[in-house]
């Protein structure tokens, strides 16, 4: 015979399990969660990575809350929510890979491009993230830029970080972006060829960025990134996926009419896209010759597995493709990359090698005559 107490436990467990299943199925059916989101949520709850009931991948149009006056919006893949999860087990000390002497890589082409395609990278961050995120960008991919600067709301000589005198938080990212590019124009416009903006949770394979840019001239009024086709006539580039301006694009920005572009509010990537269009700077096609993507506004798993939020399928210029066959072998950037994954990518990209296979170079840049 089963005791009354044991029976109550079984009934409570069964009720809770059924309730959770019904809720999950309803969220999936109603479009608020994709199948991938549901799977990840269940896995995270099981792994005790999320507090119960905290759905981090709520599907909301990232610009749906904007009104005609360009008010701020809530990002569906909220940095604040992701930080709350990732910082529970954040890396406190910088990991250093010390096996460079074991590699026999031929780096001649990469070294040549480093001299010929000079890239300044500036990273959007805040003083609260200097230790949590920014220093890990510097320790991984950032060190491969010709120049690395962090744009912040407080100074930090160790990064280095520039205090733009803009309040912290997402409400003033447009002002922060505009001031950052003005600072870069004022101090570095003649020293570098291309000028990239990225977030402190973006991971960039800089050698692949230089390869893409090597097919273009810094004198072209052009910029590149993950292309969204809405809001701005020619589209705009995802801020989190990173976007890069040519020297001519930066020059037009730095010498613009002060009233031509937004000074604050709105989504920084949208407002930058509007500004570039007004300045006659064109959106470049960063896909490779096989039509595969190189800039990415989500993490690698999302672009490999799919499960995109509904808004993304409407925003992405090329239809929200996913899978290995749609990501370039010379991919450039990924977004929403927590610190631990930055070091994981660092290992996969620059250290893991299949013995006995020597990778040859591929010609994946679109020739000038074939560009649209």
Compact overview of the structure:
This protein is α/β, with parallel strands linked by helices and 372 residues long.
Topology at a glance:
Blueprint: H1 4-30, H2 35-46, H3 79-86, H4 108-116, E1 119-124, H5 130-139, E2 147-152, E3 161-163, H6 173-188, E4 194-199, E5 203-204, H7 206-213, E6 222-225, E7 227-228, E8 236-237, E9 243-246, H8 247-254, H9 268-278, E10 282-283, H10 300-305, H11 310-315, E11 333-334, H12 339-350
Helix pairs in contact: 6-8, 6-9
Termini Cα gap:
77 Å
Q: In percent terms, what proportion of residues is strand?
A: 5-15%
Major beta-sheet overview: 7 strands, mixed
How many separate domains? 2
Which CATH first-tier class of the largest domain would you pick? Alpha Beta
Residue windows where pLDDT falls under 50 for at least 5 positions: 22-61, 64-76
Radius of gyration: 22 Å
Task: Assign the CATH architecture of the largest domain.
Answer: Alpha-Beta Complex
Compressed to H and E, one letter per element, the order equals HHHHEHEEHEEHEEEEHHEHHEH
CATH topology of the largest domain: Spore Coat Polysaccharide Biosynthesis Protein SpsA, Chain A
**Integer average pLDDT:** 81
Number-wise, the strands total 11
Find the structural class using helix and strand composition.
Answer: alpha/beta
Which percent bin holds the helix content? 25-40%
Count of helical segments? 12
Q: Based on CA inertia axes, which overall geometry fits? A: globular
Strand order of the largest sheet: 3-2-1-4-9-6-10
């Amino acid at each position: 015979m089963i005791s009354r107490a044991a029976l109550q436990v079984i009934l409570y467990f069964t009720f809770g399990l059924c309730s959770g299943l019904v809720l999950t199925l309803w969220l999936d059916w109603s479009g608020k969660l994709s199948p991938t989101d549901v799977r990840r949520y269940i896995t995270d709850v099981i792994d005790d990575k999320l507090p119960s009931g905290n759905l981090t991948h709520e599907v909301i149009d990232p610009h749906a809350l904007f009104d005609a006056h360009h008010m701020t919006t809530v990002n569906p893949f909220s940095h604040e929510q992701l930080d709350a999860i990732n910082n529970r087990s954040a890396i406190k000390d910088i990991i250093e890979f010390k096996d460079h002497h074991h590699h026999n890589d031929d780096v001649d082409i990469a070294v040549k491009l480093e001299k010929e395609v000079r890239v300044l990278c500036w990273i959007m961050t805040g003083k609260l993230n200097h230790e949590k995120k920014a220093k890990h960008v510097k320790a991984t991919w950032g060190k491969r830029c010709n120049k690395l600067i962090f744009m912040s709301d407080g100074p930090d000589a160790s990064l280095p970080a520039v205090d733009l005198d803009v309040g912290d938080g997402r409400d003033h990212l447009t002002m922060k972006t505009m001031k950052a590019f003005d600072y870069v124009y004022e101090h570095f416009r003649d020293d570098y060829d291309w000028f990239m903006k990225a977030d402190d949770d973006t991971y960039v394979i800089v050698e692949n960025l230089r390869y893409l840019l090597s097919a273009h001239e810094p004198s072209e009024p052009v910029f590149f990134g993950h292309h969204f086709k809405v809001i701005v006539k020619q589209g705009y580039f995802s801020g989190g996926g990173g976007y890069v301006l040519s020297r001519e694009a930066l020059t037009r920005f730095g010498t613009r009419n002060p009233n031509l572009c937004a000074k604050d509010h709105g989504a920084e990537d949208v407002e930058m896209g509007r500004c570039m269009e007004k300045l006659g700077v064109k959106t470049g096609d960063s896909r490779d010759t096989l039509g595969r993507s190189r800039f990415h506004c989500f993490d690698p798993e999302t672009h490999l597995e799919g499960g995109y939020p509904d808004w993304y399928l409407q925003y992405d210029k090329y239809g929200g493709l996913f899978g290995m066959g749609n990501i370039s072998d010379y991919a450039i950037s990924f977004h929403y990359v927590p610190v631990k994954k930055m070091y994981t990518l660092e290992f996969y990209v620059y250290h893991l090698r299949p013995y006995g296979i020597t990778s040859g170079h591929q010609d994946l840049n679109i020739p000038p005559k074939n560009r649209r």
